Structure formats: structure tokens, C-alpha cells
Amino acid sequence: MKKQTPVSVIMTRNVITLNNADNLETAELLFKKHRIRHIPVVSGEKIIGMLSYTDLLRISFADAVDEDEESVETMVYNMFTIGQVMAKTLISVPSTASVQEVAEILSDREFHAIPVVDDGKLVGIVTTTDLINYLLEQF
């Protein structure tokens, strides 16, 4: 296994993003349409947060007892903004970081995606799935 392989080799380059003006319903549609679990929130080309599908699940089922699930989700989504739900404290890596460095960060933290940022610009995202697929290719 090549320990110094740069994360740019395994990261997703065409990143689906959101901005603060988007709503949580839009986010849910993007998660489902693209079958992804993490969406960076950007202001221009700068990343300002990360929204995970788990973040949406945490709020959408909070009061879903004996209610029509879709109407409850819409009602709950209207109560929050992306800025209120997204993770704001992020760790990012440059595209030159090694796959090993990224694996160490992900194994030490409780999140499953890291934005890849070069010169303040979001250039990709690397997830635990990307790492697993990379490892599988090594065998």
C-alpha cells in the first residue's frame, strides 16, 4: 500500500454544495437524488460548514409521533435554517495531504467526511467510503 498517496487521488472533485440561502428541503432532495451523506455549505468558493444526512434525521424525527411523516418533516425543516443545523467547526485538508493522514483524522474524530481545500477554495471532499474503496483496490 502506498502510504504517501495524495488524497486528491481518491477525493470526489465534483462536489454537490449548498449555501446559507438554501433550505433543508432542498438539502434532503440533494441527499436522496445523488445518494450522498455529506454536503459542504459554501459562500462563494469558501466552505463555511458541512451538513450531513444524519443532521437532517436528528431534527426531522424529533416530534414525528402520530403525524404524517412528510408534513412533519416539512414543518420541522421550516423551523430551522441550514446555518443552524450544519457543523460549523470543520477540519479540512489540502489536496496534497496523504490518504494516511486523512485516515488518521477520520479514525480519531466522530465525522465521516473531510472537505479538501486549496488556497481557501473547496476543491473536493473525501469520505470514509472513499477510503474503504481505496483500501479495497489495494487487495
UniProtKB/TrEMBL annotation:
PROSITE patterns per record: CBS
Record carries keyword Cell division: no
Keyword Transmembrane: no
Occurrences of domain CBS (ranges): 11-67, 86-139
Superkingdom field: Bacteria
Keywords, comma-separated and alphabetical: CBS domain
InterPro entries noted in UniProt: CBS_dom, CBS_dom_sf, Diverse_CBS-Domain
Gene3D superfamilies xref list: CBS-domain
Protein name: CBS domain-containing protein
Organism this protein belongs to: Ulvibacterium marinum
Phylogenetic lineage: Bacteria, Pseudomonadati, Bacteroidota, Flavobacteriia, Flavobacteriales
